[in-house]
Amino acid sequence: MRWIVRGLAVLAGLVVLLLAVVYGGSEWIIRTGHKTPDIAVTVPKDAASVAEGGRLANIVMCRDCHAGNGEGKVLFSVPLVGTVAPPPLAEMAARMSDAELARVIRYGVKPDGTSTFIMPSHSLGRIADDDLGRIIAWIRSLKPGPQDSKVKTGFGPMGRFLLLTGALPPMATENNLSVAKRPGDIGRYYVGVACQACHKLHEDSVMEDGKTKVPALAPVAASYDPAAFRKLMRTGEGMSGRDLGLMGVVARVGFTAFTDDEIAAVQAYLKGEAAKAPAK
Fold first, then answer.
1. Residue 111 and residue 236: Cα distance in Å, rounded?
2. Which residue in 124, 232, 253, 256 is deepest, having the highest Cβ count within 10 Å?
């Protein structure tokens, strides 16, 4: 009996030590500060720019993650893993300058220097300066209210373990991938700021959950005729007629904001990329 008690005591001690390492290491990751280049953003105030900012916020999925009117919502909440709840945009903007808003969108870095998580800075960082100003103009037009979510993001022990192992990495980046004005090659541009939040051009991949498969973008787009591709982009329905899960959500919530000409430009760019790929 004495040996059993000692064994349980040792086991309990190891568990406590493991939890301390996981908590301490993950907390260091969460609190680490990040330096980024300065951003000088011009935020327009005219109604047309605000409306275009709202349309762009659909395309780059601000209104999916933060809810349709920016009121914030719970993306997921899993016991032991944690809760990811993008905050209400109006409330957040009230505490930030335009430069600070631009910094968190483009670099994934909050005003205190700590990193965001989940937010796809690798694609949002490609938003042109003028479009970034329009999106911030739309955010500034939002008003806080009782509909705003009060839920905060937090990580449980499994979530902290994912942070510590790099499976859930901080999204802070120092890379400036933007240009001053929305480029004429809008197909390439929209693929970069929207589609590549999830997809790679020529390689299959998986989402952060390690389970959801994401096909290579260029060969898939090249396999669709223009009408079927428009349907895919507006409804998330593939050629087989089945709903494509996350793509369906993205299409119905965000990509309906694309014009027909923009969808055609996206497909034309992706077909060109597919043609460049070496034969397998």
1. 36
2. 124
Query: How high is the pLDDT of residue 102?
Result: 95
Assigned CATH topology for domain 47-165: Cytochrome Bc1 Complex; Chain D, domain 2 (1.10.760)
- In sequence order, the β-bridge partners of residue 82 are 78, 155
Of 14 and 46, the one with more pLDDT: 46
User: What is the reported pLDDT for 1?
Assistant: 63
This prediction has a pTM of 0.89
Q: Which pLDDT tens digit goes with each residue over 216-246?
A: 889 989 999 999 999 999 988 888 777 777 7
Same fold, 47-165 and 186-276: yes
Query: Domain locations in the chain?
Result: 47-165, 186-276
- Structurally, at CATH architecture level, domain 186-276 sits in Orthogonal Bundle (1.10)
**91-117 pLDDT, tens digit each:** 999 999 999 999 999 999 999 999 998
Three-state secondary structure string covering the chain: CHHHHHHHHHHHHHHHHHHHHHHHHHHHHHHCCCCCCCCCCCCCCCHHHHHHHHHHHHHCCHHHHCCCCCCCCCCEEECCCEEECCCCHHHHHHCCCHHHHHHHHHHCECCCCCECECCCHHHHCCCCHHHHHHHHHHHHHCCCCCCCCCCCCEECHHHHHHHHHCCCCECCCCCCCCCCCCCCCHHHHHHHHCHHHCCCCCCCEECCCCCCEECCHHHHHHCCCHHHHHHHHHHCECCCCCECCHHHHHHHHCHHHCCHHHHHHHHHHHHHHHHHCCCC
Burial letters 185-203, b for 16+ CB under 10 A, else e: ebbbbbbbbbbbbbbebee
